[in-house]
Amino acid sequence: MIPPSKVRPQGGGTQDTPDETVFAAVVYVLVSGCAWRALPPCFGISKSTAHRRFVIWSRAGVWGRLHEEIVHRLYDASLLDLSRAVLDSAHVRAKKGANTQVRAPWTGASRAPRCTSCRMRTDCPWSSVSPLPTSTTASR
């Protein structure tokens, strides 16, 4: 589903980052809602690499094909029940003559996002942000 990386005709450059690593970083940003600049260093790639691949894959239609594949696999395994479904959509109309000087208040996440991919690694500074739930804390 993921398009192959382009080979530089002049050669050189850095070694290509594996698609699996970039995919994990992109999914982390999409699921957690953190900004690209807050991508934890435990993924081992830069925020610009993750964002660039996200844009390339978006233009290539990877996310739509991935969604279709997951839906088909769930349907084939009889794990998809569409007898009850919810459709959610948000549209905000920009009114003509609206005050463009008013800015929305800052509601962004903190600069230390929860890193769920490397909690067990001790070399990642983000792994200590939220401890793993234990049997005594999970029921609270």
Automatic annotation (TrEMBL):
<feature type="domain" description="Insertion element IS402-like">
    <location>
        <begin position="2"/>
        <end position="67"/>
    </location>
</feature>
<dbReference type="Pfam" id="PF13340">
    <property type="entry name" value="DUF4096"/>
</dbReference>
<protein>
    <recommendedName>
        <fullName>Insertion element IS402-like domain-containing protein</fullName>
    </recommendedName>
</protein>
<dbReference type="InterPro" id="IPR052909">
    <property type="entry name" value="Transposase_6_like"/>
</dbReference>
<dbReference type="InterPro" id="IPR025161">
    <property type="entry name" value="IS402-like_dom"/>
</dbReference>
